[in-house]
TrEMBL record:
Organism phylogeny: Eukaryota, Viridiplantae, Streptophyta, Embryophyta, Tracheophyta
UniProt GO BP: chromatin remodeling; DNA repair
Protein name per Swiss-Prot or TrEMBL: Chromatin-remodeling ATPase INO80
PANTHER family according to UniProt: CHROMATIN-REMODELING ATPASE INO80, HELICASE SRCAP-RELATED
Species this chain originates from: Davidia involucrata (Dove tree)
A single Gene Ontology CC term: Ino80 complex
Primary enzyme class: hydrolase
Function description: ATPase component of the INO80 complex which remodels chromatin by shifting nucleosomes and is involved in DNA repair.
Subunit structure: Component of the INO80 chromatin-remodeling complex.
EC number: 3.6.4.-
Start and end residues of each Helicase C-terminal domain: 80-152
Amino acid sequence: MLEELHHPWIKRLLIGFARTSDCNGPRKPNGPHHLIQQIDSELPVSEPALQLTYKIFGSCPPMQSFDPAKMLTDSGKLQTLDILLKRLRAENHRVLLFSQMTKMLNILEDYMNYRKYRYLRLDGSSTIMDRRDMVRDFQHRSDIFVFLLSTR
């Protein structure tokens, strides 16, 4: 069983799971995910699956090793969104993009950074003042192309 976990695709899967796991709120575009920081640290890891991952693989690669281009080739929905956003940007449109899950907003943030689209993100962790400021910025600043919004 443990020998099977040494395959490179299993490691990528576990790192991908850590990337998209329960991370509420925005994070720095190139900053490591809190679970990967936890795996990389010498502190005890509380989740049994993460303990096993740490024991098998040791330190995981930093978030910067994530390949958004591969994500685009692996996801038909993201490919379609990519085509649509390119067209909308070429025609000087602006986009409101809603998601029920903050995990999806995390993925969309990675995509926005990859395409170098200027965006704002509003989710449940945003304060009332931040929400007001972001809405005002999106209304008045034409350089912001996408507004990522959580419906929860």
